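QA checklist item 7 of 12: single-chain prediction sanity check.
[x] sequence parsed
[x] length recorded as 158
[x] structure emitted
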Amino acid sequence: MATDPVLRQQVVEMLKRTLDRNFEGAIENFPMEAINTPPPNVAWTPYHLLEHLRVGLWDIVAYVKDPQHVSPHWPEEYWPPKDETADPTAWNKSVADFRSNRNELIVLVENPSIDLLAPMPHTPEHTVLRECLLASGHSAGHLGEFSILREVMGTWRR
């Protein structure tokens, strides 16, 4: 069964809103001097949260594209080590990798030869639609955290 074009377009719009506009808004003008600063009462830094977002999205895209993909071990491999710090180059690479994976997922959904509702051959109880909902939901929750983190840290540039 082919995916309804209206459903496909709605999934693309959902991904663009969450993974594009919300992501870009959350990270826009983030001050590099604060990427390794843990907010009050939080065990991780903005860089850690950005990396968690990146790894989560990468894992979903790789899972959809590659039946042989092995996901990282939960939860420790979805977060960088607590003492890991980043420089602006590492931050920018994480941002670029998130964007690349976001774009890959959107291109997959836009491809009319991919049935969003068909069972995935390597996991018949999952569909591409399910993975898109998972990517959007996971990212939306953490991007909300990222925005609150910025407010608490005073890192929004007015």
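[x] summary fact logged: Helices lie at 5-27, 46-65, 88-110, 128-153.
[ ] second reviewer sign-off
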